Amino acid sequence: MKVLVIGSGGREHAIAYKLNQSEKVDKIYAIPGNPGIAKIGECVAGSVEDNEMIVKFAKDHNIDLTVIGPEVPLCNGLADDLEAAGLMAFGPTKYAATLEGSKAFSKDFMIRHNIPTARYKEVNSYDEAVEAINDFQFPLVIKADGLAAGKGVVIVENVDDAKKTLKEMMVDGSLDGAGSKVVLEEFLTGFECSLLCFTDGTTIVPMVSAKDHKQVFDGNTGPNTGGMGTVSPNPFLPEGMDEIFEKEILEPFMAGLKADNMDYRGVVFIGLMIENNKPKVLEFNVRFGDPETQSIMLRLDSDLYDIMVACATKTLKDVEVKWNDKHVACLVLASQGYPGSYPKGIEIKNIDDCDDCVVFHAGTAIKDGKLVTSGGRVLNICATGDSLDEVREKVYKVANKIDFDGKFYRNDIGLR
Ligand code: AMP
Ligand code: GLY
What we know:
Rossmann fold, 5-stranded parallel sheet, 6-stranded antiparallel sheet, D-amino Acid Aminotransferase, Chain A, domain 1, alpha+beta, binds adenosine monophosphate, manganese, EC 6.3.4.13, Dna Ligase, domain 1, 12 helices
């Protein structure tokens, strides 16, 4: 079988790595892929936003399955376009992807289907927003409606800061139009956890837990990032949450998909806040998490190709999804300056012979025959073992060895 992976990050490298272990997969293509993926497949230049080019490529190359990594092509209807051309896609339709593409749509879905979430109000103008502030206490959560690459959520402590943020988003257009509509939301306390699941729209299968570290510096300080590292299992998740998630979140979610006739075949990544064992949904993402996926894939014992085809063909109930009991850590090596601006094109050294770690490429490129940095998150060092201590030791050993100017990473992945 021939598989096409859409995307260029560590998440896509981890997906390709796992698909490459399938006996059924003979050839992996990626658009645009990265130098790590290029070692196990063929990378083809192109934009993840060019639906026409991607569909044509998949047709011309008789691709059996296209796996869509990032949210932008999903929200652009890539899965719909592939299906319309008679091709199999792993990833929800454009309509279902609106669960991530619009916070207001997503909140409305949650309320209508009794999925626990924070109280909110949708506002469509700055004046309406300022008026609505009075209905909330501080801290107040302000969310741009549209996709904003992780920059769309701001938590403010007072009226002045609320007005300033609302003006930037709604009047000045700071987020390229993503903030012309805004959701104001009650601030929730508790601890955050992500729940990733495979679904074909009828059956939903949770993956093993993973803990992401979102803030850039040790001790959860500094600005939010896409994620600086993950461990699986999530050491902070209390016992017995699986049943609570099933009853309080997954059952109403699946009932909601059915009631709204939403064709959802792919991964749903549910961001949760948990207090006193009560989960509330912060957000839906319509894709794998990055870097959650890098840890989770190393715990999957079943054939990923079979699972993805089962999602795409609505036969997920017939496949066994098996996980191992190992511990996994994934550590992000980042470029100085991330999540702000950072230099690119810096040579990466000592990346060969990384002992028993798996190194996924996240933001790398080849320049003049050399491996160089090309993103804020550069490499994801992952290790598998029998304890959290063991995998932490392994990833930090390799993190020290690999070298590029401006390299930095968090030292407390997996710790409280
Ligand atoms: P979201 O993209 O909606 O998940 O929001 C990004 C981050 O903002 C979350 O991971 C939380 O850390 C924080 N956040 C979002 N909504 C809330 C809320 N209602 N209460 C507290 N924190 C929140
Ligand atoms: N690691 C968080 C995300 O993928 O959205």
